[in-house]
Design a protein that fits this description.
Helices cover about 30% and strands about 25% of the residues. The protein has about 350 residues and is of the alpha/beta class. α4 packs across α5.
């Protein structure tokens, strides 16, 4: 089978790998869609010496085609459409048992990062990683839910976003755009913040009430003006950038709630005036559980949200170099590899 491997320094290769064969308690999924995520960009840009010889991609969605010994028909019926929760753990500790295998007490694998992922023809997984893909969603939409959109959904749940809230979303990549769309469905007034005019246009199409380009307007001042000087009840940072994290905290109101989902980097806060004296609650939210992944898909389908519009570009695996070159420019919505 084929698989996309990052070589480092914005280079990649479509390599041949042996077709996977399921061992005991393993399942083979034929990939029909595999999304790109902002967290792919650091390893794509990394020096060549840091590259790993693994198939990339951690948003897999496809069809079960084989199962190994000990996997029952009920767990993995051949032909079932599935999303993949892209982590594996021991399967027995308290975190694994509630679907948060990325928090396994005994260590975890991240598919597409530490072991073979979804940018290939097939992926070999464990049955507890399978999340049925409901009929109302396409494979492409299932791939989006399998990381970026699911991450946004669980972060909004952590923030308890509702119609009472103004929500400032820093970053309008696939996670931030998903947050904008989902938060509107939850009733919030959404302020979308990004440097990319293309992404701000998409945010407006997804229902953002206000769009802000920080290169032109101070987002903290703009949020305060919008809220009569009080600040936003909720703020979400999807960028991972230090300045945006600080701005998310500064724009929050007294008793506000702030959530960080963007990975990497550090940030320095003026703790007393910006956090303690405002009595802020700050959350970290790391993707989602397998249960939360299914819940996100159902939320989208029941409310008929236009998740397909998040996907602005589709490519075959053969065009992986062009696809990542485009995604690296950080002006698109979701970019997805598709297989007919």
């Amino acid at each position: 089978m084929r698989g996309v491997v990052f070589l480092g320094e914005r280079q990649l290769e479509l390599r041949q790998f042996p077709d996977p064969s399921p061992g005991p308690r393993e399942v083979v999924v034929e990939i029909r869609a595999s999304g790109m995520c902002g967290s792919d960009i650091p390893p794509y840009r990394a020096p060549r010496g840091a590259a790993r010889d693994i198939i990339r991609g951690h948003e897999p969605c496809g069809v079960i085609v084989a199962r190994g010994a000990g996997v029952t028909e009920e767990e993995a019926p051949i032909g079932r459409r599935v999303m993949v929760h892209h982590y594996s753990g021991c399967g027995a500790c308290k975190h694994c048992r509630v679907g948060y295998t990325q928090m396994c007490l005994y260590g975890h694998e991240v598919y597409g990062s530490t072991t073979h992922g979804g940018h290939g023809d097939y992926i070999l997984v464990h049955p507890y990683m399978l999340v049925p893909l409901i009929d109302e969603l396409s494979f492409e939409e299932g791939a989006a839910v399998s990381c970026g959109t699911g991450t946004a959904y669980l972060a909004l749940k952590r923030l308890d976003v509702s119609g009472r809230d103004t929500l400032a979303v820093f970053g309008q990549g696939p996670v931030g755009l998903s947050a904008t769309m989902l938060a509107k469905a939850m009733g919030a007034r959404v302020v979308a913040i990004d440097f990319s005019p293309e992404r701000l246009k998409l945010a407006a199409e997804f229902g953002a009430d206000v769009t802000i380009n920080p290169a032109q307007t101070d987002p903290v001042a703009a949020v305060r003006d919008l809220t009569h000087g009080e600040g936003a009840e909720t703020a979400l940072d999807c960028t991972g950038q230090p300045e945006a994290r600080v701005q998310a905290v500064k724009c929050a109101a007294i008793w506000g709630r702030v959530c960080f989902v963007g990975e990497g980097n550090t940030a320095t806060f003026d703790v007393s005036p910006d956090i303690i004296h405002k009595q802020l609650t700050i959350y970290g939210s790391w993707t989602f559980s397998a249960v939360g992944q299914a819940e996100c898909a159902r939320f989208i389908a029941d409310r008929k949200l236009p998740l397909s519009q998040l996907i602005t570009h589709r490519y075959p695996l053969e065009a992986a170099a062009d696809a990542y070159r485009l995604f690296d420019a950080q002006t698109t919505g979701k970019v997805v590899f598709v297989r007919s």
